[in-house]
Design goal:
- The complex is a heterotrimer of chains A (461), B (221) and C (360).
- In chain A, 53% of the residues lie in helices and 21% in strands.
- Chain A has 9 helices and 14 strands.
- In chain A, helix 6 packs parallel to helix 7 and helix 7 runs antiparallel to helix 9.
- The two termini of chain A are 59 Å apart.
- Helix content of chain B is 41%, strand content 25%.
- In chain B, strands 2-1-3-6-7 form a 5-stranded parallel beta sheet, sandwiched between helices. Chain B has a 4-stranded antiparallel beta sheet with strand order 8-9-10-11, covered by helices on one side. A two-stranded antiparallel ribbon of chain B has the order 4-5.
- In chain B, helix 6 crosses helix 8.
- Chain B is elongated, with a radius of gyration of 19 Å.
- The two termini of chain B are 28 Å apart.
- Chain C contains 15 helices and 13 strands.
- In chain C, 49% of the residues are buried.
- The chains are: A alpha+beta (461), B alpha/beta (221), C alpha/beta (360).
- Chains in contact: A-B, A-C.
């Protein structure tokens, strides 16, 4: 069963915004429709009511009964909006005086001269009727007069419908506009997340600096959780570093004791077989020590590679210091170390990584060269890069390729008799890779020995 | 030479001291900075071997104080840590050199020699034998006032003979001392170097005598 | 004395007619004046037409329609506007098209839901808005309501009256000449007559003064313009007021041998001249409403209008006429016309009219 991934934030936001826009559009339509109808009905009712009142006021009592003079203008006006049909009825007491005598009566008797409005069906059409009542003095007796004036509201319906359609069109336009605007808004809203992701993503693989990008309030909990996570990780790694250093100490101190004791034992031993054993023991101790050293070196390189601590480094100075460091070691085998450095070659990189790479190269060169040979280190500018070339007269690569040799714990086919951990070239490769540099290993030009080349980009002038 | 060994691990200190004594050096052990200070107050040393982590303080502080007081004794730091920052720190604070434990004693010798050479070394390093003056720091043999350059191994070979004059030193023994235990050594390597040394000693009363089946010894004719 | 009798007679007739109008009709039968069948006897279908227009006048138009529809026949029935209103309004008589000069009665039929909606494709797109009410009532001709004067009325160099004021002055100044020799529609009997009079009274107060003056001069009341025109020609009448001029003009056009000096002058009074719309509608009860609407469409079409104008002599629908002649006052085709038909209002008007007529 595959777990369902929660819907994209962007899609959710857009969908919700569109749903909201749709709801609002519908509400707008309904509101306009409703209020348009109400407004027009109110207006028309007002006019109808006024006309009914005018009609009622026009009725006079005269000898022989009531007298009315209907004005065509009133009816014309009432009919004007939308060609409405007009119906009316005048009741005096219970008798119909004039008009359409079957026009439906209202449920309530209206208050004096205040029109009462009601809707009814008459002759297969919907009518809106205003009822006005007043008192007429007929033969000194007050008689109730009821005036009903009705009109069809086809015009109103048409206008209301037209308004509603227009409102619907506006609603639709609003909704359609909402689509790109929602997308924009969603993008805008989610941009801080994208920016945060980008800012964190731009970091090196294990860049453990806290995230300092300015983020909106809602993302602050996420960022602070991320930062505390980073801090914990950094703490763990620092602890690891400390642990490694402590481990180094605790491994190396006994090894040092072993070596010293073994040499003492070797000196004191008379037995040939024992001496051979002790020599093997010492070799093993040296092996352990070297491996431990390389492992620690490797761990350091990996650690530093992710730190990306860059600085301006004068390669000449670094190479010179390193060469001086190795001179006593080289001298022990009567190996001559030569350094030829061009002036002022500066690169931007991590001193620790460069030093680790160069140190391992020199160490290898000295280790695999026979006594009384030369190891030459040349430093110069070539094709916009700083190039360090280490040439020895040792036994060469034995046909192995760099790719092989630089994999961990891999040693060349021709070095079985020399103690080595197999990590040296791995370290060089990883150190250079971390700085965007290059490392090549080739047999020396004139066949004897190896040429190891490190190159680093020179910063733009 | 006279060493002051400052190391809190007693086992290791004893081992290192015994090993150095094998080469004919005198070693005083101090197991803390306080003890080290006492020793320094009481005697003069050619070289101080200093462990960085000590129970009563960081070796670097000792270094700093040592330099400020302008004591001339060179210091080689022994460290089991290999964090680059540690190494760089150490040199910046005033150590003359450093070694990572466990170290090759031959390398220690070589570095001591280099440090002392830089420092302008004590006069007692000259070793006369017969009519030959041996300067281990300068790596020269002087025969009747004429200096003869020695290669590193040649010099070490001669030093071995000079430290035990008249004694028979086996090829094995010489091999152990001259070459690293991890290095491939050809069978006649010692013979080659003895031959070269003999050439350098030509014209002097010092002679390297082959004792068949046993080894070699330096004699005064 | 004679006048009093006549006046009484008029009152009785008025009352009777009033009663007749207010009480629901019990008789059931409406009266026709004339009828004629147009078209082939074996026609596929027959269109029933009820109209106030004389057969002689409208015949060319009917024939024009049948010329385009040779397989159809038209049964053309003529009745007065009141009878027509009775027939359609009360009895649901089976006619496919009703043409009447009584705009108000047609309007009432439409307002009361007795007119059938005509599909818009029948109606010429050029028909102005004021020439129809909804899709129910349509004007086919616009006719001024005029003053007819016999030439001998002004014998002796009397000035032609151009306004009601002039007319009042003329009548007042020459009572002997005009006594008993002036006529108009009887508003009690003639629907159109009532309409003209009511509209006239609404527009200016000169109407009542004119009515009083004419009442004093023994105004003769007629049911129809045809008789008035005939009487003028015959010399029995010098002047006819509020007459549908088209009849006079049509008769003049068709007159032929009778025309000449005896033809009355048709005067459109310049203070205002009411303009009647002769309207047609298709009743709800029409047996063949589709063909009724087809005939109506023809009447409104360019050809139909041309025939109406040239052959029938009735002025066709023409919006520009009102712009060109500002004295023409069209009677509005809208429910305002219902006000005139209100029984109280009508009885009030008629009693005032009666009072004016009773002047001597």
């Amino acid at each position: 069963m595959t777990a369902r991934r929660p819907a994209s934030l962007r899609r959710r936001l857009v969908v919700q915004l569109l749903a909201l826009a749709a709801v609002l559009a519908v509400l707008l339509f309904a509101a306009v429709r409703f209020s348009a109808e109400r407004a027009s009905e109110a207006t028309l009712d007002a006019i109808l009511g006024a006309a009914a009142i005018a009609m009622a006021e026009e009725i006079r009592s005269a000898e022989g009964g009531a007298v009315m003079d209907l004005s065509p203008g009133t009816f014309s006006m009432l009919a004007a909006m939308g060609d409405e049909r007009i119906f009316y009825r005048v009741n005096l007491g219970t008798a119909t005086l004039t008009g359409y005598d079957d026009l439906p009566l209202p449920d309530v008797v209206p208050a004096a001269l205040a029109p009462h409005f009601y809707s009814t069906r008459y002759r297969d059409t919907e009518l809106r009727i205003a009822a006005v009542s007043r008192s007429l003095r007929l033969d000194t007796r007050p008689t109730a007069l009821l005036v009903l004036l009705g009109q069809t509201r086809a015009g109103q319906s048409t206008i209301a419908a037209a308004l509603a359609n227009r409102a619907a069109a506006v609603g639709l336009v609003v909704f359609l506009l909402a689509v790109p605007l929602s997308l924009l808004a969603a993008d805008n809203l989610l941009r801080p997340i994208a920016r945060l992701a980008e800012a964190v993503g731009r970091r090196g693989a294990r860049d453990l600096r806290p995230v300092r990008a300015a983020t909106p309030t809602e993302l602050v909990p996420l960022v602070s959780a991320l930062n505390s996570f980073i801090a914990r990780l950094r703490g763990t790694l620092a602890q690891t570093e400390t642990f490694i250093a402590e481990a180094a100490h605790h491994i190396r101190t006994p090894l040092a004791v072993m070596r010293a004791e073994a040499e003492l034992a070797l000196h004191q031993s008379g037995d040939e077989a024992n001496r051979a054993r002790l020599r093997r023991l010492i070799r093993a101790v040296d092996d352990s020590a070297r491996s431990a050293g390389q492992l620690l070196d490797h761990a350091t390189v990996l650690f530093r590679a992710d730190q990306q601590a860059l600085a301006d480094i004068d390669l000449g100075v670094l190479a010179a210091a390193l060469v001086e460091r190795f001179r006593p070691t080289a001298e022990m085998k009567d190996i001559h170390l030569a350094l030829v450095a061009g002036p002022g070659i500066k690169v931007r990189g991590d001193a620790v990584l460069i030093e680790a790479a160069l140190r391992n190269l020199l160490d290898n060169a000295i280790k695999y060269s026979p006594g009384e040979t030369e190891v030459a280190l040349a430093l110069k500018r070539e094709d916009g890069r700083a190039v360090m070339r280490c040439r020895d007269h040792g036994r060469g690569l034995g046909g192995a390729a760099l790719a092989q040799l630089s994999s961990r714990f891999q040693r060349g086919p021709n070095v079985g008799d020399v103690a080595g951990s197999g990590l040296g070239l791995t370290i060089v490769t990883e150190a250079m890779a971390a700085m965007g540099g290059r490392f090549t290993l080739e047999p020396a030009e004139d066949g004897e020995g190896t040429c190891a080349t490190l190159s680093l980009p020179l910063p733009a002038a | 030479m006279r060493f002051l060994l400052v190391e809190d691990n007693r086992e290791l200190a004893a081992s290192v001291a015994a090993r150095l004594a094998l080469d004919g050096h005198g070693v005083d052990q101090a197991h803390s900075l306080a003890q080290a200070a006492d020793c320094l107050a009481a005697a003069e040393y050619d070289l101080i071997l200093l462990d960085i982590t000590l129970p009563d303080g960081d070796g670097r502080d000792f270094l700093a104080r040592h330099r400020r007081a302008e004591h001339q004794t060179p210091v080689i730091v022994m460290t089991a840590r290999s964090a680059v920052s540690d190494r760089v720190d150490v040199l910046d604070t005033g150590a003359d050199d450093y070694l990572t434990k466990p170290f090759d004693f031959a390398e220690l010798q070589a570095r001591c020699r280099a440090v002392l050479r830089r420092r302008g070394g004590a006069a007692q390093t000259l070793r006369p034998f017969a009519d030959v003056v041996f300067d281990p720091l300068a790596a020269t043999l002087s025969v009747n006032g004429q200096p003869r350059e020695l290669r590193s191994r040649e010099m070490r070979l001669f030093e071995l003979f000079v430290s035990a004059p008249g004694r028979i030193l086996s090829k094995e023994h010489l091999c152990d001392r001259l070459f690293s235990f991890s290095e491939p050594v050809s069978d006649n390597a010692i013979e080659v170097y003895v031959g070269r040394l003999r050439k350098k000693l030509a014209g002097s009363h010092a002679r390297i005598e082959t004792v068949r089946g046993l080894g070699y010894r330096l004699t005064d004719t | 004395m004679r006048h009093a009798v006549a006046a009484l007679a008029r009152r009785l007739i008025a009352a009777a007619l009033l009663a007749g109008l207010t009480l629901p009709t019990v008789s059931g039968a409406y009266q026709i004046e004339a009828e004629q069948m147009f078209g082939p006897p074996d026609a596929r279908a027959r269109i029933e037409v009820l109209s106030t227009t004389d057969i002689a006048i409208f015949a060319p138009v009917i024939e024009g329609f049948l010329h385009h529809n040779p397989t159809l026949a038209v049964h053309y029935v003529v009745a007065s506007s009141q009878e027509i209103h009775q027939a359609i309004g009360q009895e649901g008589a089976a006619f496919d098209l009703v043409i009447s000069s009584a705009m108000d009665l047609q309007m009432k039929l439409a307002n009361d839901g007795l007119a059938r909606a005509v599909p818009p494709d029948r109606i010429a797109a050029t028909l102005p808005d004021w020439a129809h009410w909804r899709d129910l009532v349509f004007a086919v001709a616009q006719e001024p309501v005029v003053l007819l004067i016999a030439p001998q009325a002004l014998a002796g160099g009397l000035a032609m009256p151009h306004s009601r004021r002039d007319l009042i002055a003329l009548l007042r100044d020459h009572p002997e000449r005009f006594r008993g020799r002036i006529g108009t529609y009887d508003p009690v009997i003639s629907g159109a007559g009532y309409l003209f009079a009511a509209q006239d009274a609404r527009i200016s107060d000169s109407f009542w003064r004119l009515a009083e003056v004419m009442g004093r001069l023994d105004l003769k009341l007629y049911c129809c313009s045809g008789e008035m025109i005939a009487d003028i020609r015959a010399g029995r009448l010098l002047l006819a007021y509020n007459v549908l001029g088209s009849y006079a003009l049509a008769q003049r056009a068709q007159g032929g041998a009778d025309s000449g000096e005896d033809e009355p002058e048709v005067i459109e009074l310049e203070d205002f001249t009411l303009t009647l719309l002769r309207t047609a509608l298709v009743p709800q009860a029409a047996p063949d409403p589709v063909r009724g609407a087809a005939l109506l469409g023809f009447l409104l079409s360019a050809e139909g209008q041309r025939l109406i104008g040239e052959a029938a002599g009735l002025p066709p629908i023409d919006a520009e006429a009102f712009a060109a002649h500002p004295h023409l006052r069209p009677i509005r085709l809208d429910p305002g016309l219902l006000a005139h038909l209100d029984r109280l209002t009508r009885s009030r008007f008629l009693s005032e009219w009666q009072a004016a007529m009773d002047q001597h």
